[in-house]
Structures are given as C-alpha cells and as structure tokens.
Amino acid sequence: MVKRGAFIVFEGLDRSGKSTQVARLVESLNQSGEKAVGCRFPDRTTTTGKMIDSYLAQKSELDDHAIHLLFSANRWERSQAILADLEAGTTVVCDRYAFSGIAFSAVKGLSYTWCQSPDIGLPLPDLVLFLELAPAAAALRGGFGNERYETSEVQIAVKDMFERIGSDVGSERWKVLDAGRDVDAVEKDVRGRVEELLKKVEGPVGKLWA
Ligand code: DGP
C-alpha cells in the first residue's frame, strides 16, 4: 500500500510570507524525492473564486454570511482533489485554509460556531504552520494594497482570532513559527517540522471540526 501524503497548511496574516514558504517547501520536498504539490485558498480561478476575487478587489458587495459560504464552497470544490493526492502518496502544501475562513469572518461579528459549520468535514490538515508576525511589521513589508481586509485594524483583530483558533485546534497540530526572521531561517524551521511530521503520518485523513 502507498504511504499517504501529508496535508500541511500555512496560515498567518497578510504579508507574513506564506506564499514564499509554500513554494520553497514544495520545491525542496520534490527535490528530496517526496512528491508534493501546492495549492492556495481562495482559489481565484474557479467560478466561486472569481466572485471572491471581485469581492476582495471591492468591485462587488456581498452579505458577510454569503461571502463566508462562498469561501467555504471554494474549499469544498477542491477537497476531493486534495484527498486524491494524499491517498496517492503526494503531500499537499496549502496557502491558507478554513482557519482564515473563521478568522476573517468572525472579526466582522459573525458567530464563531456559525463560521465553523460550513467547513465541518473538510480534509483535516496534519499540520498547520502559523507564521506569526506583528501586524505593524506585516504592514511595513511592502505596505497594504487596496484589497478588502488590508488594513491594520482588521489584521490586529484577525491575529487575536487566530490565537483562539490555534488553541481550539491544539498545539499537537498547530505550530506557531516566528515569521519575523529572514526567509531562509523560517524555511529551515519549516523543513525541520515537516520532516518530523513525514515520519509519523499514517492512517486515514481526518475530518475538520468533526
Ligand atoms: P490571499 O489570496 O492569501 O491574499 O487572501 C485573500 C484575502 O482573503 C486575505 O485578506 C484573507 C481573506 N480570506 C482568505 N480566506 C478567507 C475566508 O475563508 N473567509 C474570509 N472572510 N476571508 C478570507
């Protein structure tokens, strides 16, 4: 039987370096002979993703509940492909996931448990690497653009919400990494944690919030 792949998620504030670390991890795993693919949410290429992109670019308005459900649908659309990769022995490294979903929606005042519910049953990550960066430091990194949520107030509130989510997920699965270090140092830390994980991944993929 093929050993299944690991499901690894990066979370963090905007500008915390997630996309760079996802790309580097996928490349280094493949170079060392571990099959790995990257993915990101929101996936802006699908029909729901295009609606999300327009909302984020502030070209359209949507009720807070409706956009939350669209973000969740965007994850469900990809879920079978993630499971298929994992079962085929490919590690999946994902840039944001359902934890961003709760963090960004709950800070708008939606109920935390209501925010969790549409994501119940999604593939459960084996490891969540939370790239921690002070919101002020994140804002200095190239500044914010014009997308919705790219303001210091939102990012500060989101950071607090991520802390609550991390404690609900539990420290076995949720690891906080200092993203204030240089890119290579963060990459080395990531790689060390992923090597530990790959030694022990086994059994079926779990279900989120179940
Ligand atoms: P990115 O493509 O990683 O820059 O993310 C786009 C923005 O959308 C970012 O500010 C975080 C936010 N976001 C990501 N996922 C969700 C989600 O599930 N729900 C909500 N409300 N916002 C999200």
UniProtKB/TrEMBL annotation:
Keywords: ATP-binding, Kinase, Nucleotide biosynthesis, Nucleotide-binding, Transferase
GO molecular function, one term: ATP binding
Endpoints of the signal sequence: none
SUPFAM superfamilies with a match to the protein in the record: P-loop containing nucleoside triphosphate hydrolases
Gene3D superfamilies: P-loop containing nucleotide triphosphate hydrolases
Family, per entry: Belongs to the thymidylate kinase family.
Protein name per Swiss-Prot or TrEMBL: Thymidylate kinase
PANTHER family, per the entry: THYMIDYLATE KINASE
Domain Thymidylate kinase-like span(s) in chain numbering: 10-189
Organism: Leucosporidium creatinivorum
Keyword field contains Nucleotide-binding: yes
Transmembrane segments: none
